[in-house]
Design goal:
The protein is of the alpha/beta class. It has two domains: 31 residues, no CATH class; 326 residues, no CATH class. The protein has a seven-stranded mixed β-sheet, with helices on both faces. The protein has a three-stranded antiparallel β-sheet with strand order 8-9-10, with no helix packed on it. A two-stranded parallel sheet has the order 6-12. Keywords: Acyltransferase, Cytoplasm, Endoplasmic reticulum, Glycerol metabolism, Lipid biosynthesis, Lipid droplet, Lipid metabolism, Membrane, Transferase, Transmembrane, Transmembrane helix. It is a multi-pass membrane protein. GO terms for molecular function: diacylglycerol O-acyltransferase activity; retinol O-fatty-acyltransferase activity. Belongs to the diacylglycerol acyltransferase family.
Length: 362
């Protein structure tokens, strides 16, 4: 109060001081600190709800549907099951995206928790179709979901006329309700029929986003590791040639930093068990931890709030060859690896890595 009165008296005396400048010198009020703390908690909640949804929603809704058949509400369960049968192939036919869901405010809190950024390096033509190769997988591919499954980072504004479709495990689309939730984000199954439909029967301006390394790559994700599983992953290149869709390398700096993982050496019993379960379940059972909800000093499921910056590289023009020979697949695969390496080297120092850091291709 004394500061305000002093400033006011200076104004009356004709000095250059002002009440505004005096107010700027006042200490921050407690409610500003409280608001900041609340925002951080909302950000953590938004990430945690997505994790719980991803891990639990499908199984929980399946159990609930079975339970409803044993109650007086069996009619509701029967009606939804009939709808499920009728709608079974929709995920393979472009899905059913919702602009409303993709623009939910919760995704902006999700984005700001890390934070996540999307960097555009080249314009993409709406008259072409694209296959984005996303690297690395990380534990949960937070960057892939935020950038391509929502509009939190402004994909549609940065790439007008391009419609992204993130693809994930087929099994997720066999789970009631959860499948609807995924489709609202424009997410589709990662199978041949689904990708062929998006690239050949859905017009142009489509970008199919494939996390190329998949579950196998997640076993090698840890802070400070710059490694991608790509050397023997050529199926997406063959698809690009068959559909005449351009290949676009995408690298997310920081994706591996949000969880700490115990990485078992090749040949150990634990590593063999992980690979065996991966083949059975379709995903890799990783031994990892993040931080607690209330403190970063405790262990928990909440990821560490480390920046994730996703850089979309320059497209590689691909001709359409319905039956591409193996040497042609190998040629474009090598071009893709070289382009991804160049993208990594060009931007690594800008996003927290050293000049000496290299990208390991496995």
């Amino acid at each position: 109060m004394k500061t305000i009165l002093a400033a006011y008296s200076h104004v009356l005396k004709g000095t250059d001081s002002s009440i505004l400048s005096a107010l700027q010198d006042l200490p921050s009020t407690p409610w500003l600190a409280l608001r900041s703390k609340m925002e951080k908690h909302l950000q953590a909640i938004s990430v945690l709800q997505w994790l719980i949804t991803f891990l639990v929603m499908g199984a929980a809704c399946t159990v609930l549907l079975i339970y409803l058949f044993c109650t007086d509400l069996w009619v509701i369960a029967a009606m939804y099951t009939a709808w499920l049968v009728f709608d079974w192939n929709t995920p393979k036919q472009g899905g059913r995206r919702s602009a409303w869901v993709r623009n939910w405010t919760v995704w902006t809190y999700y984005r700001d928790y890390f934070p996540i950024r999307l960097i555009k390096t080249q314009n993409l033509l709406p008259s072409r179709n694209y296959i984005f190769g996303y690297h690395p997988h990380g534990i949960f591919s937070f960057g892939a979901f935020c950038n391509f499954g929502t509009e939190a980072t402004g994909f549609s504004k940065k790439f007008p006329g391009i419609k992204p479709s993130l693809v994930t495990l087929d099994g997720n689309f066999r789970m009631p309700v959860f499948r609807e939730y995924l489709m609202c984000g424009g997410i589709c199954p990662v199978n041949r029929n689904s990708i062929d439909y998006l690239l050949s029967q859905n017009g142009t301006g489509n970008a199919v986003v494939i996390v190329v390394g998949g579950a196998a790559e997640s076993l090698n994700c840890a802070p400070g590791i710059n490694s991608v599983t790509l050397k023997n992953r050529k199926g997406f290149v063959r698809l690009a040639l068959q559909q005449g869709s351009d290949l676009v390398p995408v690298y997310s700096f920081g994706e591996n930093n949000v969880y700490k993982q115990v990485i078992f050496e090749e040949g150990t019993w634990w590593r063999l068990a992980q690979k065996k379960l991966q083949k059975i379940l379709g995903f890799a059972p990783c031994l990892f931890h993040g931080c607690g909800f209330f403190s970063s000093d405790t262990w928990g499921m909440v990821p560490y709030n480390k920046p994730i910056t996703t850089v979309v590289g320059e497209p590689i023009t691909v001709p359409k060859i319905e039956q591409p020979p193996q040497d042609m697949v190998d040629l474009y695969h090598a071009m893709y690896i070289r382009s991804l390496g160049n993208l990594f080297d060009k931007h690594k120092t800008r996003f927290g890595l050293k000049e000496s850091d290299i990208l390991h291709i496995q």
